[in-house]
Amino acid sequence: MQVAHAEPVVQPVHPQLLLESLPAVPENWKLLSSTGSNELMGSGEPVTVATRIYEIQIEDKSQEPPVFKTVTLKLVAMDVGSRTETVQTFRSQLASVGLGDEDRKKIEFGSGVVGVFRSSSEEVIKCNGLCGDRLALQVASKGADAKEFVALFQPVDFGKLAALGRRLPSSVITSGRYTLHIVDEMNPKKNRSYQAGTFDFSQEIIEAQPKDTTP
User: What is the pTM of this model?
Assistant: First the structure.
């Protein structure tokens, strides 16, 4: 079994750095979980994912008198490293706003971070965005309409994430083996690091093929 030595791969950042760069949020956002990890995609390329889940009480002004309702919000930032196709996909989504799909709307998160979201009748909103050339942003909320979703982010500061997007290190790995990390900020006992890698089975496949014994 051979460790793959294919194209050079950009090493994504440590998940703790990505977690520390996630946006500051209002005090009334209740943090339910905050985790980060390095992961290997099916293609063998590593990425770093940082995820925070919040529970937020907002005023439902559609009722008279207004009442409070609960919104759950999942915020995911991902350093895609060498996965340039991920960034290209998100850029194409941004470029397609206003070109025939009126359900897709653009949102300015601030500090140059932008996204595209779509809402459903069940008040479920999914949003994809970009922060620089390597940081992808995914947001999912339940319980808020489009107007409320945009309003949620007006006091949120994306400055640290934007700054990270401009200064990401670009260390390159060619060994096919990586040190992966798992970080749980609310339960540090689960933090750990381990070795993983991708393998090149091409030689084994060749050797396993039936031999031509025709005289």
Answer: 0.83
